[in-house]
Amino acid sequence: MGSVATSTALVLACALLLITPPAKSQPLDPDAPPISAVSLTVSGGVSLGVYEAGFLYYALASSRGSQRVDLRLLTGASAGSLNSLLAVMAACGAEAPSPEKSLFWRTWIPIGFDRLFIPSSTSPLGIFSRDALEHGATGIEEVWKKGLTPSCDVVLGVSTTRAEPRVLWAANDRLPLPRIEEKFAIRIQGRGPGKPPRATNYTTPGSRRMEPLLVTDEQGEIPFEHLRNLILASMSFPVAFPPHELPTCESSSSKATPPVCPQEKAGTARYIDGGIFDNAPLRLAVGLARDGLRASDGKLRWRDVPTPGVRDTPKGITFAFVDPDATEYPSLPPAEARSAATSLPVELAGLIAALVDTARSKELALLLEEEPEIARHLILPRRHFPAASAPLFAFLGFFETEFRTFDFYLGMYDARRMLEDVADRSTRFAEPIGEPAEEPGGWAPFTCMRAVYDGASDATKACQGDALADFRALLQVSLDQLYFACGTAKKETEGATWRNRHCDRAMAGHPPPRVPGVAPRRWPDWKKGEKEPELDYSMRLLGAYGFHFRDLGVEQGRGDLAIVRIRESIGSALHRLTSAQSGADKQVVGFAGKLAADSVAFAPPDTVLHFTMGPTQSEVGLSLGAFASKLPTGLRFASAIGFRGLEDVFSSGGGESFSAALVGGLEYRPRTDQSFLAQSRFGLRAGWMFSANDRYGTQGCEGRGASRVTACSRPVVQALAGMAFLERFRVQLVGEWYPGTSHRKTLWSVAPGLGVELAL
Known about the structure:
The chain is of the alpha+beta class. Helix content is 31%, strand content 22%. It contains 20 helices and 20 strands. It has helices at residues 9-17, 49-63, 79-92, 103-108, 113-116, 131-145, 224-234, 282-292, 344-360, 362-370, 391-394, 401-425, 444-453, 459-462, 469-489, 501-507, 534-544, 559-579, 585-600, 646-649, and strands spanning 37-42, 71-77, 153-170, 175-189, 198-201, 212-214, 244-250, 267-272, 293-296, 299-302, 317-322, 378-379, 607-613, 618-624, 635-644, 659-668, 678-691, 714-725, 729-738, 747-759. Strands 1, 2, 3, 4, 5, 6, 7, 8, 11 and 12 form a 10-stranded mixed β-sheet that branches. Strands 13-14-15-16-17-18-19-20 form an 8-stranded antiparallel barrel. β13 (607-613) and β14 form a beta hairpin. The chain is elongated. The two termini are 34 Å apart.
């Protein structure tokens, strides 16, 4: 459902060097054209799509009724394509008086992991079910049918990726040119209340650019069903969702205005996530503006037919680019810089990450090369505080409703900051943006967030009440993370300025402020450990601040168990995907899935059976993690049967040296430095050794059993240290102590072992 890699360096460079709003005292550029139209480009963001939703809700709700700014164009990729469609509905449809009643909220907040992962719906090509998205689309269609205002005339651009390339031929059909990216342009015109809007393909009839067309009726109008399928296709992130089939025509097949694409003449192709190669379709927006917008009566209006070949961007249009990864604070450097890579896997991982980021920013880079002056038309709002959903490659938000709720309000907060900055720097807006009418419940978290982040004197009153307990914990964690990021990066960003007073305070050495109402038993270390993963850092702080992990089913404050539940959920989903494969693919997918799940947090199998052999002892053991939730993290129940003198049993020696020890106890597996490649464990076990020499305890023990440890039956205490590699090969060292009594002498031994272990 969007980007898995982080935001591209190019976008951030544009934000820092070209689009930073000037100070209030700086006069407006007298040569800058007046704003008469706005274009919105919304990038993909996985679960951070909910942040974009909150941002767009507040920005559009606050701008309703403005006669000086006209929303004319929207483009999006992946989750951004859905938010772009919702933005059309919000700008041109009925007003939502509170966040919870908005279409943005009703579409995004219910989408959790439990609604995405339905085991029976997992296919060989995708883990998740589209049922939740289809249900959300039903709600969108209901609003669609209620109609949009007649003044609404916007073009929606959607970026998609074909699963199988379309081949274009050049050089007299001798040079094949595979094309995998597809861009759709849909014109949406309101027809008033009670009438569904008019949606048509906005392409040039007979175009030789092979622009795709959605299926239409005889009048060239697109049924909502096909518009919905286009959005679902753009959101079909590989592995998460299977490719989505979409019937289309080529623009060259129709010379009508608007273009017509009959169902019977459409060809069906499979599409996947549009953010793979163009996660920021800003170039698409600029191209559509060039081809389609023209000045008329002081406004920019759409031509009935786009005119390709226009090279100048229309004056008076501003392009706003909403990217949740663009931050108003320095991002932390990776734990291991690529320049310091000393191994092939690290080097290849860095290279792959660079290739992904480069591919996804290609269109934006081309745009800046084609038209460097486009920076004067750009507005890039930035995120001022860490988002709750950001860890786990922006996937974390799907595991807790409260994470998504927090990020929705965080988007609203940043929208307000952007609108205030724009109003401060220009008189193009009629007046500073104000909040919509207050409604009990809907605006309380937003009021609390603003009071805390802005240092208002009434923050204690604004954030009071049990209903905001988890929200306050998330606020505190966001402040801790921001202060750590800014304080750590101050040397690397020396000379840089951030329009974030909290970041300035952190760089000056101040600790994060404490959110009113957050009162842990013991305040945790708010700084991230040197080797502490981002997910562990977030969960540790949330646990310390008493967060309720309701969706994960974890008791209050148990951030460590929350990680276990997340790992279990991801592991179950990947196991289901593995089960859906056939033949040799099952082993390949299973191995890759285990590596992917263990990259989140290593989780050993619930039940492990092991066999080891050594010069003095052989052992069969069982380790149980089924009841690990009842024990402190890392502890498991373990039992074993150890055998000594097996060689005597199968020889003429009589087997008098044979013994079998039954032991049980606890095994500890540290969470740190564990991976699929190697796992350490330590154990403490106790039990009884039965010796054949005294007929398993039924006869007397001669000489107090001092001749050898197997001379008589006796109690035994064992301490174990071991390692497993690839969850298959096991090396262990067992130290044994045989406590003495009046009839037995105290003895000890060391038993090394080498063997295998199997997950059951």
